[in-house]
Amino acid sequence: MTNSQAPSATRTGAVIGGAILATVGSVFALGGGGILAIGGSDGTFKTGHNDVSTPTSALVSEVAKINGTHEVTDVLGEPRVRINADAVKAGENGVFVGVGRKADVDRYLAGAEIDKVMDFDTDPFSLDKTRVTGTAKPKPPTTQSFWVAKSSGTTAKLDWKVRDGDYRVVVMNADGSRGVATQSSFEVEIPHLASIATIALIIGLVTLAGGVALMVPSFRSGGSLTPPVQPVQETA
Q1: How far apart are CA 56 and CA 134, in angstroms?
Q2: So what's the pLDDT on residue 186?
Q3: Residue stretches of the chain with pLDDT short of 50
Q4: Domains of the chain by residue range
Q5: Structure confidence at residue 36 (pLDDT)
Q6: What pLDDT was estimated at residue 236?
């Protein structure tokens, strides 16, 4: 390698290394910033109050298969799910919100007409529901003992500490009657997520700045990043 090629190779290495650092820093910064923008400083992801209703006996979620919560809680704290459901029709027995194991919920609602929520969007809010037909009338959900978390009333406020298992979320009228009409909001809280996102954001910004600092001197040197072409000497 000639003396003129050595500085060029050094500049090229600095630019490549700086670009890698800047890319990694950008990923960390965008990830951390995005989590903070959505979850806020308390690590809570929430929806507004929206129409959550069905003409059937119940709205039932898809099965939530939860595993490894012990490992997650060591790092992120204990995740919680909160649902606030306001009864739209005043003067009735109110609404019921419950979380139960899949087998128990399926057994309880067997033969009843329900709407299963297959998916949902938050912006704008919408529920993708599938109708399951039936004629059975379920007993009032408040009389059942299998719920792992439940709440009922004119405003039902459910607060569930997430645990391993297969679960369904159910929204019903407190007396088990058909025609469920609520305005409901949903929250998922991950206590330490905001702190981790803040650390990721700081690391990302520092790494990004380091990458830029590594590249700038190479561009300011005024030289090309490719080795100069040596002139060809002609001989007679």
Answers
A1: 9
A2: 84
A3: 25, 32-33, 36, 39, 91, 223-226, 236
A4: 5-39+194-220, 44-190
A5: 44
A6: 42
